[in-house]
Write a structure and sequence with these properties.
The complex is a heterodimer. Chain A is an alpha/beta fold. Helices cover 33% and strands 15% of the residues of chain A. Chain B is α/β, with parallel strands linked by helices. Chain B has a single domain, classed as Glycogen Phosphorylase B (Rossmann fold). Chain B has 7 helices and 7 strands; from the N terminus they run αβαβαβαβαβαβαβ. In chain B, helix 1 (3-34) crosses helix 5 and helix 4 crosses helix 5. Chain B is globular, with a radius of gyration of 20 Å. The model of chain B has no long low-confidence stretch (mean pLDDT 90). The chains are: A alpha/beta, B alpha/beta. The interface between A and B is medium-sized, with 29 and 41 residues. Chain A: Keywords: Transferase. Chain A: InterPro entries: Glyco_trans_28_C, UDP-GlcNAc_transferase. Chain A: One of its GO terms (molecular function) is transferase activity.
Chain lengths: 178, 229
């Protein structure tokens, strides 16, 4: 994480991702001036938006006036690098994005897309929020979540392990290990 | 034909059909009874394995499971994804190409990558889905006749339903005994997916895994294995 141009503040990037979906409500919410000013107030310097198949394009900003530097792109073959260099991740409720972020140990706010039919995704986001591994929000409440959040209070997520299942499958098929 | 002989001929046909139905029913009950029980008989060194991939996290979860399975025990591997899913087979291919066994030999050469018609696209009306499901099932039959896998790994995409249905049919007809392992997605906390519900209720899967305790409480025949991601 390098220094910003003014050499005063370290770079702290907020990375927003919607995966392969179209989630205009979220892109709009993070594109508002109020929201971006709140991010600045909380010490963030850069905002990068991965907008997927969205139709609404946010406004870029080079942050010359000391405001947030804002950039966006549609897709990337791997968002791992963006996640790694982020100080805060705001993601749609896809399990892939969620666990990729949690496994990197990054603070995460999951925003549920209420326009999706049969929104089973919210189950996972709410469960993990209850276990205090992330914050859960809707596009309209995202501003308040940023204002009220206490990232220190989030509990680290211990990555899961698929070996128990492998053991069961092996035993079922007759492979006798220890 | 004189009248009494007509009756006799009919009698033979009815007897033959009844015997067939009886045989299939007995075989069906045997398959249901043996499903889920440890494989008996001589265990093999390796099992040909069909791996069903899917968009939206399914492939990532499946590849995560594959990373802890001994590759020489599950070979050759056949990866299958819906025709409209562009990324999944690519991801599988990347993983296979990067794998080597203990001796440092590249093991990905025998892997096959196939596409199957989708039973139903997200948001498609249920009425048109009947036809597309029939098309998908016919395609599944065509693929399964060629592959006849001994192990099937799936975790939720609708594409697994026709494949598992055919696999069950193959069990009943004695064409191939496939052990079906179903792992409900980590994204399913309180409710099963449609695929999961079907396979659970119809007892088609040999082993049915769930990753959250709430699901285990609701579906007691499922095996709770914790979060895999």
């Amino acid at each position: 994480m390098g220094e910003t141009e003014d050499g005063v503040r370290p770079q702290r990037t907020v990375f927003v991702t919607v995966g392969t979906t179209c989630f205009d409500a979220l892109v709009r919410a993070v594109g508002t001036r109020d929201f971006q000013q709140e991010l600045s107030a909380r010490g963030y310097t850069h905002l990068v938006i991965q907008m997927g198949r969205g139709t609404y394009t946010p406004k870029k900003s080079d942050g010359e006036d000391g405001s947030l530097v804002v950039d966006y792109f549609t897709f990337s073959s791997s968002i791992a690098d963006y996640l790694r260099s982020a100080s805060l991740v705001i993601s749609h409720a896809g399990s892939g994005s969620i666990f990729e972020t949690l496994r990197l140990g990054k603070p995460l706010i999951v925003v549920v897309n209420e326009d999706l039919m049969d929104n089973h995704q919210s189950e996972l986001a709410e469960e993990l929020a209850e276990r205090k591994h992330l914050y859960c929000a809707r596009p309209q409440t995202l501003y308040k979540t940023i204002a009220d959040m206490d990232l220190e209070s989030l509990l680290p997520y211990v990555p899961g392990d698929a070996t128990p299942v492998a053991k069961i499958i092996n035993r079922f098929l007759g492979f006798l290990d220890d | 034909m004189p009248f009494p002989m007509q009756i006799m001929a009919l009698g033979y046909v009815v007897a033959a059909l009844t015997a067939l139905v009886l045989l299939i029913s007995i075989r069906f009950l045997y398959v249901v009874h043996r499903s889920g029980k440890l494989l008996h008989g001589k265990s093999q060194r390796s099992y040909s394995t069909l791996i069903v991939l899917g968009s939206g996290g399914h492939t990532a979860e499946m590849l995560n499971l594959l990373s802890v399975l001994e590759k020489d025990r599950f070979a050759p591997r056949f990866y299958i994804a819906a025709a409209t899913d562009n990324m999944s087979l690519q991801k599988a291919r990347l993983m296979e190409d990067s794998m080597s066994d203990a001796a440092g030999v590249k093991v990905g050469k025998t892997a096959k990558y196939l596409q199957i018609y989708r039973s139903r696209e997200v948001g498609q009306s249920y009425v048109t889905s009947v036809w597309t499901t029939l098309v998908a099932t016919t395609h599944a039959l065509y693929l399964m006749i060629q592959l006849r896998p001994e192990v099937i790994l799936c975790n939720g995409p609708g594409t697994c339903i026709p494949l598992c249905a055919i696999a069950f049919l193959f069990k009943v007809l004695g064409i191939r005994w496939s052990s079906i392992f179903y792992m409900e997605s980590i994204a399913r906390v309180k409710r099963l997916s449609l695929s999961g519900l079907l396979l659970y209720k119809l007892r088609v899967a040999d082993q049915f895994f769930v990753q959250w305790p709430q699901l285990q409480r609701k579906y007691p025949r499922a095996e709770y294995v914790g979060c895999l991601m």
